[in-house]
Design brief:
Elements lengths: L9 H10 L3 H8 L4 E4 L7 H5 L3 E4 L21 H11 L8 E5 L3 H14 L3 E5 L7 H22 L5 H23 L10 H11 L4 H18 L8 E7 L6 H8 L2 E7 L17 H11 L14 H18 L4 E7 L3 H16 L4 E6 L6 H15 L1
Parallel strand pairs: 1-2, 1-3, 3-4, 5-6, 5-7, 7-8
Helix pairs in contact: 1-8, 1-9, 4-5, 6-11, 7-9, 10-14, 12-13
The protein binds iron/sulfur cluster.
Length: 387
Amino acid sequence: MMTTELKRTGLAGVEELYQRRGQRARELSEQGAKVIGYFCCYVPVEFFTALEMLPYRIQGGVNEPITEADAYLETIMCPFIRSAFDLALKNRYDFLDGLVVPHTCDTVQRIYDIWKYYRKPAYSHFINVPHMLQPSSYEFFKQELLTFRKSLEEFAGRKMTDEALTEAVRLHNENRALVRQLYDLRKPDPPLTSGVEILKTMVTGMGLPVLEYNELLRSVIREIRERGGGPGKKPARILIYGSVIDDISFIQLIEDSGANVVMDDLSTGLRGFWHDVEPTPDPLDGIVNRYLDKIYCPRTYRPQAETQEKDLDNRFGYVYKSAADFQVNGVILYVIRFCDTYELDAPDFKSYFQKKGFPVLYLEDDYSAGTLGQLKTRVQAFIEMIA
Ligand code: SF4
């Protein structure tokens, strides 16, 4: 396993890592580690850990105007993907040795070929993740992951043993449990930590080796418990549902408008941490089940239930349960413009939560700090309404 000295601990460590995103990956790359960039929650990060590589979740930059990518990509596509590719064109991801892309949505699928063609990573792989859950999907996905495993072994120049994979599963399950412990600190009213602190920690961890991330999480949890206090009581307790938020500015805006952001179901938030990989005799089976069936993103169609009510419960019941557990009194549905995946899901999500008695604010965003002012008025009006 990649064992390296962790120089940054606690919330000060998070702050430093957040402000200099990519810096730790760059340091490890300079020390000879192979760093592999990936998108979304569907890439089994356990594979990289088992081969002592560093998985690095690729992010965009809401504060950086898109100036290069528009020469290659249409402007009517996901601005998060355009932004991430723009950063790649500006050499911000020059520490990446490889790129792994799962078929989350068609936009992310297309960026795979474009990135490969123009950035020429030393290693690249595309994972075909079934969109439907039926018995054959599991066998198909297992074959896909076997192909991925083989190709990654060839790049690493060595085999991934089942023992190493089992140990990687253990470490990443520990990581998921620590993230859930961190989230539990938001349950009291007032919460012990802010949404801004949580997002900084989550975004930071996506670029660290799992051992370092686990140590960082332990130190952050300890510090928050010991310091007492926190962001203070505010009249609104908000849950955010959506895809990618990898910059604190939007969360900051909500918290500055008189609310505590106490829960999320975001691709860059808790979505990848709700469920562990179950230990199975062949560790790959647990990985297949967890990545295919236990990540609730609207890109996957689950078998329809007999009634619409039951169907909505199957899709969103876990978010509703967490909203109740965390005493939420308002829900923000945050969708990045041109994201068909979430736009198609939004009406069902909104009506489901409204029927459950929650006020819902549906926002479509350009993934740019420049449009925050437009969102501010709507967020403030929403918080005034529920407070
Ligand atoms: S935000 Fe939507 S369109 Fe963009 S990568 Fe995620 S799922 Fe795809």
